[in-house]
Each structure stands twice: as structure tokens, then as C-alpha cells.
Structure to design on (478 residues):
């Protein structure tokens, strides 16, 4: 039952640890490089713990959770818990701010979470689903269904302004809405460091599929741009 | 043919095209002429395979026989594939990869742009999703058309050769199948003739900007059946599922 055992670990949680490890291979792998074995810098245990320990609800939310009995109240807390799951690629925004969760239904037995993919081939999508499952399992929802819908399509226009601001502080230029015409030239992307609009595209496709690489022609800093979708 | 059957065929046609193109592009992984290009082409592959997943999943639902997108991809024979023959053409050299991609990108941008207004909610949603991906592809490939066309004599010769060789496959892409007429009338799918006209305008615009010429339309279209290239590709793509049925990661 939700609200009962607060922090339960299970098979689902184990799965996500494995998935995380495969998703961040540099943290565990030693790779051969130019004839030598290259070991990535080790993170201090406390740092690893800080990065990987799942976020917890605040004490007041836990208190609320144990008292909530109505279905809509439980749905509300599910939303709150979802808002604590960070985007695996861009940890400064949550998956709720990213806008992939469309709906939450709870009928007393089964919890259904409706999501929409960011874009069709996003490799992080499986991780999103695993993170959601693990978080919900932690809250005691075992009967869980994740439904994927394509319509209406996901768009970066729904990312709230404060999350955009956080992106910028993090060093990633937030999405800029250009023309709807696919044959029109792309919009200018302001540099997240100095704000200049004199920037050049280095590579349309960057380290992750949702970002492009730019350099600023004024402050000369390279930066990533979160593509507008 | 009922509306559902026709729509199933249509989704299969678009889905297979994306699947086969995605697979062709994935063959470029670690073979790009430079790091950025390697990443770009494999990103394209990812987008196309993602689009194929959504379209084939929908096709399986319309068919109603419980076939998943994986069943449709891995367990059909070559003659059952509905993809455009353009996309199964091999990665002869970088100019062919770019030319093939450019011809498809213009088509897909126009198609998805119009598909957003489909009366079918799922198709409309996919249209607006895919359009954004294809817009990035088109920007990238039209940039390359210009660079290759206005680059050296050698690059110009090669890109012109690729466009001229692939041109014979474009009528098939631009011509609607007989079952599509009814769907067009109901506003479920975009009008193929409209797309064909816009496609030519956009393609010629980029070609002339790149100092290239539009090839002659061929009098005799190539045969309807799939080429040997597709047979080879499917042999590789389907090998694992055929040898070890239901194998999973």
C-alpha cells in the first residue's frame, strides 16, 4: 500500500542500478587507450552517494503521505515524487519540468503513469521509465503501468522559465524557438556565458542527441545548445 | 480494402522506409569521414529507427493480429517490405549517403509538415514529432549539398554523379499507391501530388544554389521489385532473430 513502508528496495531498484551503471560506463570501466589502460578518475564514495542516491521526499511530504487517504491526494503525491526525478543527461532539470509525464491515474489498485517520449529515438527514454518505476516502487506502488502516448507531441516550449534559467546557469543554451518552416534558416543562439548572439554552429549533433555544439564568437567559449523541439 | 487495412499498408510503407534508411545509416557508424559527421549520421539513424518503431507499432495495432514492431521488422521476408527503393541503395561513397539522405529529407519534411493536420490523431502527433527531427536532418544535408557542390571539382563531380544515379528512384517515392487515394480523400494522409510538386521546387532550389543541375527524368523506371542490396541487408539485420527466435538482450 502506498504510504506504508516508505523506502523499500526491490528487484526494480536493483535493475535501475544496473541500468545506471550501463548508462554511465565511464564511472566503472577501465578502457585501453593508446596502449595503456586508462582508468577514469575515481569519485569519492560520498560524491558517488551524492550523485546516485535517489532523491527523497521532504519530511513534511512523508508526513502528508502517511495521512493522505483520498485517491486524488495520492495522485498529487505521485506528481510530487516525480518532480524529484532529475533528467539523467541534464541533472539540473526534473523529468516533470522536461514535460514527459502527461498524466497520473490511481484507482486504489493500479497506478498508471502516462508519458510521451522526448523524441522518437531518445536513448535516455528507457532510463526515464526505469527511474519512474524505481521511484514508484520505492513508494510501495507495485501494480504499476507505464503508458506511452505520441499525441500531442512533446515540445521544449513547455519547459518552465525557471528551468530554462537553470539550464543557462549550468552552461547549456536553452532552446530557442525558430520558424515553423523546415526550409527556413535556423535562429541565432545566444551564448549562455556572455549573452552574445554572435555564435557559430560547430556540430549539429553533440554528445547527446538533444544537444548541438556551438562556440561564441565574442567570448570564444564553446557551449552546448539544447535543441528546440 | 477497408480504411484500416489501407492505413496499415501506408504505415508499413513509411515505417519500412525509416527502418531501412536507419539501418543503412547505422552502417556508417565508425566510418564517417570525420568525428562530427560520424555522430551526425548515427544520430540520423537513431531518429529514423525511432520513427520506424512508432510507425510499425501503429501498423501492428491497425492490423490487429498482435504483431509488434519487432515482429514486423525481423520476421517478414524481403518481398513483404514496402520501403522506397531509394533508401535501400548502398552507401557507395559519402556523396551517395548525403544525396540519398537529402532527397528523403526534403520529402519527409513536406510529408510530416502536412501530416500534422491529419484527421487521425496518432498520425498527426507523429507528424509534428518527426517534423522537428527531419528539419535538423534537412539543414544538415542541404549544407553538405552546398559544400560538396561548391567545393572542389572532385567533390562536385561526385555529388552530381550521386544525385543523377539516385534520381531514377524518386518517382516511386513521390507517387501514391492506389490504396492511398481513399485515405487522402478522408484527410487521413497528405495529398501525394501536392508533396511531389513542393518537393521538386525545394530540391531544385538547393541544387541550383549548390551549382548542380537537376538530372533528366528517366523514361523507363527501374523494376518494381526490391534490389539485391535489400536482400543482403535483411540477411544481416534479421540473422539473430531468425537463428535464435525470441532472443533478448
Amino acid at each position: 500500500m502506498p504510504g506504508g513502508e516508505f523506502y523499500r528496495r526491490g528487484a526494480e531498484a536493483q535493475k535501475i542500478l544496473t541500468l545506471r551503471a550501463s548508462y554511465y560506463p565511464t564511472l566503472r570501466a577501465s578502457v585501453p587507450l593508446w596502449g595503456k589502460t586508462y582508468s577514469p578518475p575515481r569519485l569519492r564514495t560520498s560524491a558517488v552517494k551524492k550523485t546516485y542516491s535517489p532523491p527523497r521526499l521532504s519530511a513534511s511530504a512523508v508526513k502528508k503521505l502517511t495521512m493522505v487517504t483520498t485517491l486524488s491526494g495520492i495522485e498529487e503525491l505521485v506528481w510530487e515524487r516525480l518532480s524529484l526525478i532529475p533528467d539523467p543527461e541534464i541533472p539540473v532539470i526534473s523529468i516533470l519540468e522536461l514535460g514527459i509525464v502527461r498524466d497520473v491515474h490511481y484507482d486504489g489498485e493500479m497506478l498508471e503513469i502516462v508519458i510521451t517520449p522526448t523524441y522518437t529515438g531518445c536513448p535516455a527514454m528507457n532510463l526515464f521509465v526505469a527511474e519512474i518505476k524505481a521511484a514508484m516502487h520505492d513508494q510501495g506502488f507495485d501494480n504499476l503501468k507505464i503508458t506511452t502516448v505520441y499525441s500531442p507531441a512533446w515540445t521544449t516550449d513547455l519547459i518552465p522559465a525557471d528551468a530554462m534559467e537553470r539550464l543557462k546557469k549550468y552552461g547549456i543554451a536553452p532552446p530557442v524557438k525558430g520558424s515553423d518552416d523546415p526550409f527556413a534558416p535556423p535562429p541565432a543562439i545566444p551564448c549562455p556565458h556572455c549573452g552574445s548572439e554572435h555564435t557559430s554552429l560547430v556540430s549539429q549533433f553533440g554528445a547527446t542527441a538533444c544537444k548541438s555544439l556551438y562556440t561564441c564568437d565574442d567570448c570564444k567559449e564553446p557551449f552546448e545548445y539544447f535543441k528546440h523541439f | 480494402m477497408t480504411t484500416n487495412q489501407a492505413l496499415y499498408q501506408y504505415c508499413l510503407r513509411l515505417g519500412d522506409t525509416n527502418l531501412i534508411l536507419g539501418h543503412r545509416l547505422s552502417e556508417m557508424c565508425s566510418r564517417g569521414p570525420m568525428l562530427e559527421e560520424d555522430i551526425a549520421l548515427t544520430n540520423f539513424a537513431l531518429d529514423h529507427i525511432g520513427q520506424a518503431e512508432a510507425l510499425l507499432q501503429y501498423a501492428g495495432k491497425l492490423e490487429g493480429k498482435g504483431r509488434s514492431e519487432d515482429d514486423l521488422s525481423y520476421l517478414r521476408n524481403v518481398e513483404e517490405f514496402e520501403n522506397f527503393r531509394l533508401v535501400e541503395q548502398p552507401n557507395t561513397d559519402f556523396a551517395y549517403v548525403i544525396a540519398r539522405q537529402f532527397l528523403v529529407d526534403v520529402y519527409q519534411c513536406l510529408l510530416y509538415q502536412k501530416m500534422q493536420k491529419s484527421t487521425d490523431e496518432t498520425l498527426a502527433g507523429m507528424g509534428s514529432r518527426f517534423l522537428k527531427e527531419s528539419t535538423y536532418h534537412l539543414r544538415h544535408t542541404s549544407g553538405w549539398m552546398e559544400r560538396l557542390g561548391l567545393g572542389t571539382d572532385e567533390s562536385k563531380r561526385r555529388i552530381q554523379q550521386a544525385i543523377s544515379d539516385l534520381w531514377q528512384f524518386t518517382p516511386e517515392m513521390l507517387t501514391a499507391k492506389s490504396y492511398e487515394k481513399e485515405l487522402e480523400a478522408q484527410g487521413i494522409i497528405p495529398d501525394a501530388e501536392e508533396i511531389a510538386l513542393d518537393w521538386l521546387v525545394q530540391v531544385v532550389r538547393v541544387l541550383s544554389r549548390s551549382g548542380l543541375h537537376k538530372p533528366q527524368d528517366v523514361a523507363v523506371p527501374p523494376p518494381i521489385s526490391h534490389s539485391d542490396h535489400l536482400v543482403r541487408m535483411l540477411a544481416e539485420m534479421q540473422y539473430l532473430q531468425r537463428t535464435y527466435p525470441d532472443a533478448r538482450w
